[in-house]
Amino acid sequence: MNTPLDIYRLNRPVGGKLKLRAMSLQAMGDEESRIDAAVLLREAARTERRCIALLPHASGETRLAAAIEECGCLLEAGDPPGAAEVWRRVLRERTAVAPDVATAMSSRLEPRYQAEMTRFQTALRAAPIFLRRRQDKYLLPPSGRERSQLESELHKLTGLFPGMSGLWWARYRLADAAEKTEDAWRMLDIAWRLEPEEPSYEAIRLDLALRRSPDQAAKILEMSYSNIDHAPAERCLVHALAEIRLAHTPTSERWLRAQTAASEGIKRATSEGLRRWLMAVELLVLCELQGLRPTHEILYTVGLNHIAANAEAEGSLNVIDVIRAEAASQIFWPQARAA
Amino acid sequence: MIRYEESARAISQIMPIHSYSLENLYRDQEHDWVVDLIPAVLAWVSGGTGQHIGPPFPFKIEQTVIGQPSQNHIIHLDWNIAALELEDSDVVARFTRMATRRTPLLEQVPQLAAYGLALVAISVLMPGRRIVDMNFFVAPDLLFDLTPGALRGVEVAGRTQGGLRTLREVRDGRIATAKSPARPGKKQALIARVDVAECHLSLWCTSPRVAIQEQVK
Hey, is the C-beta of B40 within 8 angstroms of any chain A C-beta? Predict the structure, then answer.
């Protein structure tokens, strides 16, 4: 049987190899290589955290070393806010180690951290539009000249800090609003690769794929369905909606897959609102499978009374359209985005 | 007039001379630890000029093992591009991009190259020992054993200029002067680490081509 130490020994070198490959890519210098390097470094940081979590009784030096490596990976990736979060852990772990040893251990990281945070603050000050709008949950794209200035600011910021997924998400929002689908896809894809555990990115990606190309969406759906039993609830909801959208006939197997996705999502829903939308989708699919015409009654049944009332008041007769539009808007906004 | 062979024989009596072909790293160490280091070694050792300066490149290495007198070695570093391409078909393209300085991140190249040269030194001077992991932000850089609390490994540094004087400063630290602040040495920092059971320094300079390989713990 493998002990936690065996698993640690097996897994930690995976992170080391990711870091080495990332450094090699960075030395290439071009934008794509730097983005690929950032993706690898963020994965290396996650690996570092998973590995140290295997050793709850590790010594102070071991915990400090792990925090330093994780923080360093995020700095090197170009994600100063991410590094700042781990830096707090570095400072905490330092207290468990002799002061001279702690100073020596963090001597490589500390000057780099300070320099990078200064560079980040300077860059933010040079991006006034972004600074003003970054607290906007939806980052609603501005219009006219302000939009082009925001685009220019974000372009510079992603060049300087390619590891910040929120910046790429913001660029996706602008490109999507301008109906530049290919650009939107690229920006979103980078955000998703940097932070694959963010359920909203995966969900939006699926939605965008549907708009971009049904064939591509079908392929992504195949991959998504293969592990739907472990997927976060947000992905289950978008997956179910995508299956419904691609189900061209009442007998399509996609209805059954939509039902599976919805019921899996209900098990893992992290909020009451999300759970209700998943239940609405499940009821909608059951109606279709039994040959019944779905009505707004579904929304009342799961407790989405205000949505049902609004839809009826606006004359939205097709409940499928209502669910698709409203449910998706619940989850498409990642938490604590850019900077 | 002393002929070259006689001269080489005379030198070899003073210090061992080793010939090492870079492609042998794929035999002596795990492929994944080698493949991303080779292009940087080629670029750094050949001077980063992009001009063809043929190997071998001799490195004079000052080796110290605890409990033994210091010993100087010479490693003639050589390579066969065709053999390297068998392991990494992109090696020439990657080397060329680094060597012709189209990369803005030049500090990465000496660092990666020093890791590669440290692997060479390990393979020549510590035969049989293999790297199992790497650190990038905390010492030691190259690990033989990653057991928490009993790490065994090699701390690496690369300097483009300065020779042994600069490498000794990296090892022993620097006293503060009017122009520059004090800098602690790597050796004392490693000795103070209770979670490190064994550690070596592997410090490299390309102009002149010298190195320090020292067991500090």
Answer: yes
Please tell me the distance from the alpha carbon of residue A234 to that of residue A278, in angstroms, as a whole number. 9
Pairing of strands B142-145, B71-78: unpaired
Q: Are B24 and B78 in contact (CB under 8 A)?
A: no
The β-bridge partners of B206 are: B209
Q: Is B32 close to A20, i.e. CB distance below 8 A?
A: yes
- Tens digit of each residue's pLDDT (9 = 90 or more) over A72-119: 999 999 999 999 999 999 999 999 999 989 998 999 999 999 999 999
Rounded to two decimals, the ipTM of the complex is 0.89
**Residues in Cβ contact with A191 at an 8 Å cutoff, skipping those fewer than 6 apart:** A165, A166, A168, A169, A172, A198, A201
Whether B197 and chain A come into contact, CB under 8 Å, resolves to no
Give B205's strand partners.
B159, B210
Question: B193 to chain A: nearest residue by CA?
Answer: A101
Residues A42/A163, Cβ–Cβ less than 8 Å: yes
Query: pLDDT confidence of A326, banded at 50, 70, 90?
Result: confident
- For A25, nearest residue in chain B (alpha carbons): B36
Contacts of B33 in chain A (CB under 8 A): 17, 20
Contact B171, B203 (CB under 8 A): yes
Dig out the tokens for B113 from the structure: 């190259």
